[in-house]
TrEMBL record, chain A:
Pfam families: WD40_Gbeta (PF25391). It comes from Lates calcarifer. Belongs to the WD repeat G protein beta family. This is Guanine nucleotide binding protein (G protein), beta 5b. The keyword Repeat applies. GO terms for biological process: signal transduction. The keyword Coiled coil applies. The gene is GNB5. WD repeats lie at residues 101-133, 191-232, 233-276, 277-318, 363-395. Transmembrane segments: none annotated. InterPro entries: G-protein_beta_1-5, WD40/YVTN_repeat-like_dom_sf, WD40_G-protein_beta-like, WD40_PAC1, WD40_repeat_CS, WD40_repeat_dom_sf, WD40_rpt.
From TrEMBL, chain B:
Pfam families: G-gamma. This is Guanine nucleotide-binding protein subunit gamma. It is a lipid-anchor. Its main location: membrane. It comes from Lates calcarifer (Barramundi). It comes from the Eukaryota. The gene is GNGT2. GO terms for biological process: G protein-coupled receptor signaling pathway.
Length: 395, 73
């Protein structure tokens, strides 16, 4: 390569190679750099190499993705509904609305059952968190939060506290008092701090630890007492919208799903991403573990719900219909795992036969999008929360 | 406070994805047919006790029939 002839204003030791030579005075990101012409050339070539590395990284990624599909494909000898051909067909479901819970002033965004199978907590865009007795419709507690859009709420395993969070980027724990006159909001304790909205939260197997997911793309495990961050989970490349803890017998893992269309399974102790699945064509709004712990389901804006077997490491069923064109926002399994209830943006809840892949029933009643469906801990009822400001109990 | 993916450069994100994929290619996996058979066995074992499928007699179901006591606040 031949040197350009240039007008050298300075002569001295090069900033890069220290050799005394005519220096080119250039600026990189407003920083003055005094390099000899050879070192300027070298720097320009390195820039080229950086560009190549990005493309070659992308190629490597694509190749590995193909290899991963191949490896998974080798064991894909049959589909779930084929194995289930001999299984008895389900009769019609006799599930109807039994209760309508009115009280929120705006969209209900989330709900969670208490382990006692009759209480539940719900949170709303109006900034309120309400604890209900589902049998009697009694509102047992009402907590007013300083922020609107409380997108996540969870009942503590002991039944003595609830967690809630949302646009305030925090997740707080509120102890539930037996004293009806007490202002619960005053006892609220901030536990989780994210750098964007909190989209989901759950207690782990005790009241002492809280798992959260956020619009900041991460999930995190927190100690409730101290507010300390115990473990953070990185891997999603966009907002994480949902998480679910594995059933306690199957160990310390959880699954998360988000706007990067990925569902990731994590080891809670190491923070490692163990498995990941990318088959949805749009945002994953909700993920839920199968009762056995060996599989999970997801709901997506692509109007499908999918079923992933963790031991086969692949998707084994897709629940979709040409007539269903609106996004699915939430899923939960019935007690036996035979039914998958899914809430959609077209105001309906579809009940799918998990094994056969067919739709068993459509539950009508809500007057706006379904934001959350949850089967009660003993499997006797389904609760749905909606943007129509109400919750419904179906049994 | 956890670090955001949006704070990482494209190159760092690709590197992270690459590391993850390398691990996942070697994940132990078992045939779909065997696992699906397991799932079906699980369901068939639990099905008789699934209240939403088998139904619950009205007198045992807290949601059917009388709502019971209602407290007006």
């Amino acid at each position: 390569m031949c040197d350009q002839t240039f007008v050298a204003v300075t002569f001295g030791p090069c900033d890069s190679c220290s050799k005394a030579s005519p220096l080119m005075n250039i600026y990189i990101k407003n920083e003055p750099i005094n390099y000899c012409s050879f070192c300027v050339e070298m720097m320009a070539c390195q820039g080229l190499q950086k560009g190549e590395t990005l493309a070659s990284l992308k190629r490597e990624c694509d190749n590995l993705k193909k290899k991963l599909e191949e490896e998974r494909g080798k064991l894909n000898d049959v589909e779930l509904h084929q194995v289930a051909e001999k299984t008895e067909v389900l009769g019609a479901l006799s599930v109807k609305t039994r209760r309508v819970l009115k009280g929120h002033g705006n969209k209900v965004l989330c709900m969670d059952w208490c382990k006692d199978r009759r209480r539940l907590v719900s949170s709303s865009q109006d900034g309120k968190v309400i604890v209900w007795d589902a049998f009697t419709l009694n509102k047992e507690h009402g907590i007013t939060l300083p922020c609107t859009w409380v997108m996540a709420c969870a009942y503590a395993p002991s039944g003595c506290a609830v967690a809630c969070g949302g646009l305030d980027n925090k997740c707080s724990v509120v102890p539930l008092s037996l004293d009806k006159t007490e202002n619960l909001a005053a006892k609220k304790k901030s536990v989780a701090m994210h750098t964007n909205y909190v989209s989901g939260c759950t207690f782990t197997n005790s009241d002492m630890q809280l798992l959260t997911c956020s619009g900041d793309g991460t999930c995190a495990l927190w100690d409730v007492e101290s507010g300390q961050l115990l473990q953070s989970f990185h891997g999603h490349t966009a907002d994480v919208l949902s998480l679910d803890l594995a059933p306690s017998e199957t160990g310390n893992t959880f699954v998360s799903g988000g706007c990067d269309k990925k569902a990731n399974v994590w080891d809670m102790r190491s923070g490692q991403n163990i498995q990941s699945f990318e088959s949805h064509e749009s945002d994953i709004n909700c993920v839920k573990y199968y009762p056995s712990g060996d599989a999970f389901a997801s709901a997506s804006d692509d109007a499908t719900c999918r079923f992933y077997d963790l031991r086969a490491d692949r998707e084994v069923a897709v629940y979709q219909k040409d007539s269903i064109i609106f996004g699915a926002s939430t899923v939960d399994f019935s007690l036996s795992g035979r039914l998958l209830f899914a809430g959609y943006n077209d105001y309906t809840i579809n009940a799918w036969d998990v094994l056969k892949g067919t739709r068993v029933s459509v539950l009508f009643g809500h007057e706006n999008r379904i934001s959350r469906v949850r089967v009660s801990p003993d499997g006797t009822a389904l609760c749905s929360a909606s943007w129509d400001n109400t919750l419904r109990i179906w049994a | 406070v956890p670090v955001m993916a949006r704070d990482m450069s494209d190159k760092e994100i690709l590197k992270m994805e690459l590391e993850q994929l390398k691990k996942e290619v070697n994940t132990p996996r078992t045939p779909v047919s065997a696992n699906c058979a397991d799932t079906i066995t699980f369901v068939e074992g639990m099905l008789p006790n699934d209240p939403l499928i088998k139904g619950v007699p009205d007198d045992k179901n807290p949601y059917k029939g009388d709502k019971g006591g209602c407290i007006i606040t």
